[in-house]
User: Which sequence fits this backbone?
């Protein structure tokens, strides 16, 4: 068998990479927890998240979400998130996909476009982000981005009403105007990023948790994850 044949075989066996995105209060965490419950017996499926997902990523997450260091510049945020993403990609996502496992990731590139680029008013950082992505991702783009869209006022109310949230992050506590900009960023960049990736937008404002779960489970079944 030629080396090129081996390359083709590895590509054919590559797992599916699904990313679940959403602003605060969109129901993203509840959805992922439900998916973990109903797909717990799937040996060829792993769940991961960012920021975090690795020991270094968890340390970076503490810095990112903490208010200890005061107001962090958006460009610093960009590099902190990118460092966490690179570690997650090479230690968790890439090895899993190459071994034929499917990966469901809580947040990925779209979050950076929505939060650090658009909501923070730093479109000037896009060339830097794209340069990082092009050199880091090396073709490991999501097969599907699932974006859970919610009206910011509804999302904020959900957060405030959720008694299980003991510690609110800096993003949880941000103004409604910030959350509106995050949503604008998602809706703006989901279509741009999706020129290469496929995306599904689910409007969750008026849907129950079960209705969202049913929609996502159907999509995952179509991808062979069931």
Assistant:
């Amino acid at each position: 068998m030629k080396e090129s044949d081996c390359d083709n075989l590895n590509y054919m066996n590559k797992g599916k990479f699904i990313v679940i995105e959403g602003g605060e209060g969109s129901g993203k965490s509840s959805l992922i927890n439900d998916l973990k419950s109903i797909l717990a017996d799937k040996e060829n499926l792993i769940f991961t998240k960012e920021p975090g997902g690795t020991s270094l990523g968890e340390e970076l997450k503490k810095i990112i979400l903490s208010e200890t260091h005061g107001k962090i510049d958006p460009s610093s945020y960009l590099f902190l998130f990118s460092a966490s993403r690179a570690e997650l990609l090479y230690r968790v996502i890439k090895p899993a996909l190459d071994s034929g496992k499917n990966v469901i990731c809580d947040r990925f590139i779209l979050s950076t476009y929505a939060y650090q680029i658009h909501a923070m008013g730093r479109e000037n950082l896009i060339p830097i982000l794209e340069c990082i992505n092009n050199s880091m991702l090396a073709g490991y783009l999501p097969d599907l981005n699932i974006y859970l869209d919610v009206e910011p006022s509804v999302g904020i109310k959900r957060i405030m009403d959720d008694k299980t949230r003991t510690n609110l992050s800096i993003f949880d506590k941000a103004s409604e105007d910030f959350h509106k900009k995050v949503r604008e960023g998602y809706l703006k960049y989901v279509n741009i990023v999706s020129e290469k990736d496929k995306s599904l937008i689910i409007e969750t404002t008026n849907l129950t948790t079960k209705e969202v779960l049913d929609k996502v489970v159907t999509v995952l079944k179509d991808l062979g994850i069931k």
User: Anything to note?
Assistant: The CA atoms of residues 5 and 201 lie 37 Å apart. The longest strand covers residues 17-22.
